[in-house]
Every structure is written in C-alpha cells, then in structure tokens.
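Predict the 3D structure for this chain.
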Amino acid sequence: MSAVLEFPVRPEARPYVEAFAESAGEPQWLCDLRRRSLNRFAELGFPSRRSESWRYFDLQPLERAPLTRAVPASVDAMPSQSGLREGRAMLRLLDGRGISAFSGELPDGIWFYPTRRAIGERPGLVRETMLSDGDVGRPFAALNAALFADGFVLDVAPGAALDAPVQVTHFASAGGAAHTRNLINLGERSRATIIETYAGDGRYWRNDVVMARLGPGAQLTRILLVEEAPAAIHTALFDARLATDARLDGFGLVLDGSRVRQEWNVCLAGTGARCRLDAAFVVSGSDAANIVTAVDHAAPGGRTRELIKGVAAGGGHGAFQGRIVVREHAQKSDAHQLSRNLMLGRRAVIDTKPELEILADDVKCSHGASVGDLDAAALFYLKSRGIPVEAARRMLVEGFLREAADGVADAALRAYLLQRLSERLGRLEDAE
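Done. Predicted structure below.
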C-alpha cells in the first residue's frame, strides 16, 4: 500500500484503504484511476457532519465496525424476481457483481450489460465518463472508483428508443461492502426508462454511483425502489448532465434500511433542459433516511420541479436537503421545489432544508417546506364514518405519500410501487 498512497491515511479510512487490491488483467487507465481515487479517499477520509451536506447522516456505525469488501456469495442467494411484470429486460447484481445477462428482447441501438463487460467492449465510453471530475470532493464516490467490482452500463444510440423499461436488481447477501459503478448514456433524441431496486440480507454497506449523460433532446426516466435489510447502510450518488432540450424524470421510493442516503446531482448544461425529481420516504424505529438534491441551472431556459414527501414514525429520522442554483447567464429558468413531511409521534424527527441561489434576474423560482402531524379534521371525519383509528391513520398517510408517485407514467410500475408502499405502511404500526 505504501507504494500506492501519496497522502497520510485518515484513521477512519484505513480499513477501507487496506481492503484495496489491484485486479489482474485490468487496463492501465483503470489501474491508474483506482490508485488516484484511493489517494483521494485516503486524504479526505469520511465525510464529516460538520459538512452541511452530511450533517444529518451518522457514519459512526461504519467507523466503529468497518464494512470492507464483500465475499461474493453463491448465485443461489439471489431471490427470485417478483412483483414487476414479466418480459422486462433485466440485469441482476449479487454483492456488487453481475451474475446474469439480461432477459427479454432489446431493440437495435440498445446496449445493456454489466460494467465489467463494458470495460472490455466499450472502453472509450466507460473511460471518458469515469475519468471525469465527478468524484472530486466526494469521498465515498472516490472510494467507489477505487474498489468497485462491477455495475451496469446502459448505452442508447442516437434516435433509439426503449419503449419498455429495463430493470437492474441489486441484492446483497454476504456482508461487507458492495461498491457498484454504473453508467447511463443516451444519444441525441433517444429515450429510455430504467428501474433500479435495492434489497439484501444481513449487515452490509452498499455504496453505489450512477453517472448519466443525456445528449440533445434525450429523455431518461429513472425509478428507484430502496428496500434494504434492517441493518444495512446505503449511500448512493446519481450524477447527471443534460444537454440542450434533454429531459430527466426521476422518482425514488425509500422504504427500508438502517441508514439510507440518496444524493442526486443534476446539471442542466444545455438550453431548455428539463428535470423532475420526486421522492417519498418512510422511516421508523431508529432508522434514518436522507434525500439530498442539487440542481445546477447552467444554461438558459431550464426547468426544474421537485416534490419530496416523507413520513417519520417511532424514533425515525428523515431529512431532505435540496439546493437549486441558477447561474448568472441562465435567464428564463423556471425552478420550483417543495418538501412536505409528516411526523407520527413525539420521538420522530424530520429535518428539511430547501435552498435557492439565484444569480440571474429573469427567472421564476420558488421553494417551500412543511412538517406536521396528520390533519385532525380529516382523521375525525374518517373515525366518524366508523373507520378504526389505526386504519384511518394509515389511509391518510398513504394518501399523503401517493402524490409523489403520480409522475410515474407506467401504470403497472406505479401500481407496484404503491403496493410496496402500502405493505410498508402496514408494518409501520408494528415498528412503533
């Protein structure tokens, strides 16, 4: 290790740095990337809660009991797929490694395979994206670049279209850590929808990075479902760059996991780019969920819509931090951000911090946040109609969260997400 590292190693980072091992047969550019990334993580160490972006996320469990590389389990540990309809093209990742190619037919111009295969077959695409500066100042993204074992690459040729969604299923079974590095690349005027689901058993750390590059006029819909194991720690970064007239629609549903952080960074780099980011989270017991968004309006005529809804019960802690920046030359930008939250019980905690930084003068921008309990009048009305109080509370909570999923255009997928939400709320009372 001494021959690789150029900086002193911060104490909390040492177990993870020591887990580094060079892989035989990798191209030189990838070996160099891993070494540089390891140096960066060794220098930075863990994110500090003194950092505004990380102030609501407790990393002490990873410091007290480090989770390093996972030992790949047998493919038998991967549960059978259920819930989503048959025929979707699918990739399955077990403990951070691809274990099966896709099932289902893909149209011409669509390339959808594990990252390991892309490094060999599409090295130019992968290299150009991975050598970007997206990991600067992001310790866990740097660690991901140093230690990732696999991931997925979705490459859509200009003008090609995926009419049916593709699916990536992540499952963790062997403890340790699973670092996955992924790429979504959409050519000019192409279109795709991708569904990513996360689950597992036992105690593990999932550290996921997805880079998305949307060409002029491209359209990407990205749907997330996070149902991690009760002892799991989940950190994820989504970094997207949108060219002229590109459109991104994203929805995340966070239902389970001990510590879950979803970070979405989007740059509207081209004129007329549009972005919609919606999410819903449910936390109870002593769990925590943190949604962090940053949207950079770097060109004129951009449009952003954000709706984040959260519910915290028991001793659960939910947090939303959202920042929208409108640069000086990004005139005619239109950005609106809303965070609405429910706290069910005196021990529940919700923190919400929406921010706008506006440097242009011809814009339409707004933000808002609310935190409260269930509507007493609505609860009284349902009880007066003979509905038991617990059933009435659940109906109101479910109705409150459903709005965030309204933007999911695929009716079957939306129904499945709402089913998973309903089942989670059915366990909410048990967790009190």
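The chain has one domain: 11-372.
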